[in-house]
Predict the 3D structure of the following.
Amino acid sequence: MDISMNSSTTNLVLAPDADIDLHLHTTYSDGVWAPEQLIDYLANEQFGLVAIADHDRADTVSILHQLALHKNLPILVAVEMTAMWHGEMTDILCYGFDPEQNMLNELAQNLLHCQRENTREVFDNLYRNGYVYPQHPDELSSILEKPSSQQPHELVTLLKRHKQDIGETPAGKIVLEAGCKFATNDIAAVVDAAHRGGAVCLIAHPGREDGFVTYDAELLDQLRQEVPIDGLEVYYPVHTPEQTAMYLEYAQKNNLLVSSGSDSHKPEKPPIKYPAKLSCNLLERVGIQIKT
């Protein structure tokens, strides 16, 4: 696979111990890092390769690429797509799609539209229930200007700012009861669009338990019977050593790609320097060589 636009990775050769982090976020989605701030940090820390995979932002690849070029920082084309499988959320990391023939962006833009419509609906419900007042119209506009993945959180923040109006009921519960939900795409549609655009698809943080599918070998078998997923994010900060070992064994047994990422959203939880050799099969799949 040759991603001609992403010249920072063309003919890239990494040492096995080169520092990489393949799962980062900026203010383009739900991160605190400004894009320039994160790229400056990564360049100063001498990362050999990174992937900024903002949620459902397949449209910002070119901007990030240009910022990284100025810092001589190799950056892999990436996006984290918010998906649903059997009624539960499961994020999909897509690496190496063609930015010029970006079929993921249509799905991402549809998701953004659905999230904005949900935000408007929830705001109206909060207004009817007496939690939002006529003097707050600009607050809806401000929330709608946020990236889609931030909007449910911003609705909760809105209520917390007016805590005297909600009593002892948790703001999150009020927002959920008003109909708030995260917009998602069907996982099969995401994987199909990614593959059509030349990308590979990996399950992000398969061991997380906070609202996502928590995969074991049986669930992974079931998923792979339904959707041609390419790999797993084996190395992830909240995975236990036992989970990491299990996912690695599963990936090796089934010839799946392996990724490693910090999921850093802010400086307080900075990127992690994973050795490139941990994800060598993924890197080689997207045209990056590992020295032998």
Summary: Residues 1-6 have pLDDT under 50 and may be disordered. The first helix runs from residue 35 to 44. The radius of gyration is 20 Å. The CA atoms of residues 114 and 183 lie 6 Å apart.
